[in-house]
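Thread title: Can someone regenerate the structure for this chain?

I was given the following input by a collaborator and told the matching structure tokens would be attached. They weren't. Posting the sequence so someone can regenerate them.
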Amino acid sequence: MIRVRQSLLVLIFCFSLSGFVNAQKDNSVIKKEIDHLVDSLLTLYKVPGISFEINTPEFSYANTTGLGYITTGVKRNLNDKIRIGSITKTFVATVILQLTDEGKLKIDDKLSEYYPDYPNSENITLRQVLDMTSGIPDYIDDSAVTKSFFYDRMDKYTPEEIYEITKKMKPYFPPGTAWHYSNGNYNILGMLIEKITGNKVYNEIENRIIKPLGLKNTSFPLTPYMDGQYSHGYMKIIQQAKLLMSQL
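Best answer:
Regenerated them for you:
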């Protein structure tokens, strides 16, 4: 449900922005209308805050609204650091494709070439793991992981532990027959990067992407807490609680 709402939000925003730009309005008017739209989305979806940046050949605008920390009422700031969560998958996929270009793997290799102990790995390709058509389940669906996540957000499982959990879970479908979002896929890809390079995945991301592109405000934090100024992340506890109760 959360992903559906996020997708809807993006679609609404894109269509609205298209109308703004096509109308060739004065930039100050466009910015005010965008701010009004974002404020309305803040209320509609009951989220603490929204930060955004828009870049087109004709128009650029960045702003933020809402709170960075609910408890203290501190407002969000454009200079706040923000955890990007699953956008990290984009970085992981990029490193996998770079390794493909370097001839260190092929995206149509069978998963069994690297992880022969994974169930049905001889019928799963790396391409399917990348685009989430592998059927590999999401470890978040495991009741023990869900309980741990709900009771202690910072309780961490190692990639190897997550791998063992997904091995025991029922796949969503036979490889290549459907699509289903699953963190289990990218846990395996992260492990694969480390297996092939001999380096930690965060080192590969930093050396291959962050440093070459000069991303001075992008990092891969290894601790539960971030240094400096940042906006807190929040999740819908009620939805997680309902999921947990359904598994008790």
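The chain has two domains: 2-75, 85-225.
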